[in-house]
Amino acid sequence: MKLITVLGASGFVGSAVTRALARQPIRLRAVARRRFTPEPGRAETTVVTADLTDRAALADAVAGSDAVVYLLLADGGWRAAETEEAERVNLGVMRDLVNVLGDAGGPPPLVVYGGAASQVGVPPREPLDGSESDEPATPYDKQKLAAEQVLKKATADGVVRGLSLRLPTVFGETATAGANHDRGVVSAMARRALEGQDLTIWGDGTVRRDLVHVEDIAAAFTAALAKPDSLVGGHWLLGAGRGDQLGEVFRLVAKEMAAQTGQDPVEVTCVEPPSHAPATDLRSVTIDSTPFRAITGWRPEISLPEGVRRTVAALTTSVHGKARS
Description:
- By secondary structure, this protein is α/β, with parallel strands linked by helices.
- The protein contains 9 helices and 13 strands.
- Helix 5 (185-194) crosses helix 7 and helix 7 (246-261) crosses helix 9.
- The N and C termini lie far apart (42 Å).
């Protein structure tokens, strides 16, 4: 029976991928820095608690794996990537991983890496399709690109069979006990709305983001694991292809929160961007994921309104108990 190991299994995306894989008749090893409880399913699941910056612990965690899903993220996410500790998690562990897998011998295992669409830097055009030259503009994106390049070189050298799925703006609710919650823009605005605070947006609200629900992202990883051969060696962009205006997204959050709480919708107001705002925050992003879809048959299934409704309902339930119908 195939053994698939998920590194970062208690993270926001990692817990969703682990949950999706648990439905399959496989051996599943869920590795995280802290204890969590994945949902039961058809898989024979083992939970491993480990600090993967320790090379020996990493080697134990991936031993015997047919496939490894790499979804590690340093504490603080992309906003805290300038520290040495963050670089060790975001990049150093990938260097260790390919060395560990190479030292193990045997057939090269599959490695599916969770990259970021933002690795391209300031979007040179719309939509992005993955053929653009990468010019990462932040420490986080530089680390993500460097890790991806380490994986591609190891693939070219025959050490592993690696591929990178570059993620768009992922949002949604967390369904696994003990897993990390979404820290992205949709959930952040939902928390503000629940507290009765106005939702502020930089500029005029027309900046677009390609928003994909976390369950659809998990489905993309399972699709890549099922049909990896034509994907190996490349990077592949995931996206819904809509380019949702953030002003409209925030208004949808305010409306859904009002429906859940019975209160009036909070206001959505536009403000001038601060002088320190990175250029990438002020540019629109739309993603054409046709290349990945053509190979795997994947496509997002959860609409933006449904995804926002679920995200808001989960938040209100966790804070106040049962959500309104």
